[in-house]
Fold non-specific serine/threonine protein kinase.
Amino acid sequence: MRRGGSVDGIVLVAAVALALPMMIAAQPWQNCGSNGNYSANSTYQTNLNQLAAALPKNVSGSLFASGAAGSVPNTVYALAFCFGDTIASDCAACVGNAFPDSQQLCPYNKEVYIVYKECYLYFSNINFLASTDNAGVMNIYNVGNVTGDITRFDRAVTGLMNATAGYAAYNSSMRFATGEMVGFDDQTPKLYATAQCTPDLAPAQCWRCLDTMIGQWWQTFRPNTKGARSVGARCTVCFELNMFYTVAPMLQLQAQAVAPSPSPSPSPVVPGTAGGRKKNRPGKILAIAMPIVTAMLAAAVIGFCFWRRRRPARAPPQRPRPLSYPTKSSLLDWGRRLKIIEGVARGLQYLHEESQLKIVHRDLKASNVLLDSDYSPKISDFGLARLFGGDQTQDITDRVVGTGYMAPEYAMRGHYSVKLDVFSFGVLILEIVTGKRNSGSFNSEESGDLLSIVSDIERNVNAREHTHKQVCCEEPAAFSAFIHH
């Protein structure tokens, strides 16, 4: 069986607003919903029993299964999954036990979600399967508390969860990842985390689900808790101080990257008085101006277009399309691809070097590059942009956001600078040159993200000639001219 984390002293955070947490001695943890009840021997119960027989068999293959039984108004919708380090037989047994346990703990309730150390089950009379929303969330935390620098601890936990979530979304076909942070302090030498989505979610959908969950983490849980898990129908995140999963960590972070919390600042001194300094504080000004400037950037992006020259108005005007919009490959000849690449490069040069304040976009991707009818590119969507003032060149955040192409130092440690945009631009170039999406694959026999595949090709000299033909080269001569431009 899969090893659990800290079981003693686990508290269930009640889903009902203002309800007091319940002390739970052991698993499972359940919520009985609020969608009404069904009667014994009713059609609804018959449909529920059909799913109780089918899902344990189906879940053992991919550790995930969902289904519906019956017709309205007695349709039952159900979803079950096991955590990624659970073996198939244990998974089937856990889901098989979850159905009778849920009916015993929540007799005749039409909606129940129940959590074990190995699995999760949610059934309802509402069709939650039609949505990717993370319904049926159960929040559980450890009553033990950490001491010391709590702010640094929270930053470390958040950074570890963000990195693990990014790995689960973009580097795992199972949408499951395990993470470890080492060297935090003598009292807490290691931190452990897992992140998981249901495997039917696309990488971007998985990331949005996990990012939303982590973004609400410290509003849901106490900042000094020794462990917590948030489990929903679409995604789940967990951290503990003790290793609670049975596979090796898929990524490892060093706690030295998490700086101690700063000491309280002394009372401000009026400039010109004794001990005062007249030096301006760009960081404070940016903190005040940031929301206004970001909104102005988003509103003014049409005027910030990087056009070579003003063009006369055309009727009817054509709405710019994102670079990710499906386009016939014959329309994107090598000249147009080069034009797009050079245009985006000029835009980044302006943001990073020519703008009065240095701007880091933080979410550069194909869908945020708009093309007009002449395939001239415009960088759009500055909602996650950050400004650097003065001599500032980099910063760190405890909440990694964005659905673009994340540099490793940003995804794992929250470090960002202009290098983050340069990394994203490199992945964008690969997409433009190959005509493939980063989350796609070259053929049915290959899988993985584009960056990993190209890296493997670069290491395998014998595969390069074959790959040129495979990824882009209906016209090898044109491609050769393009790369030597």
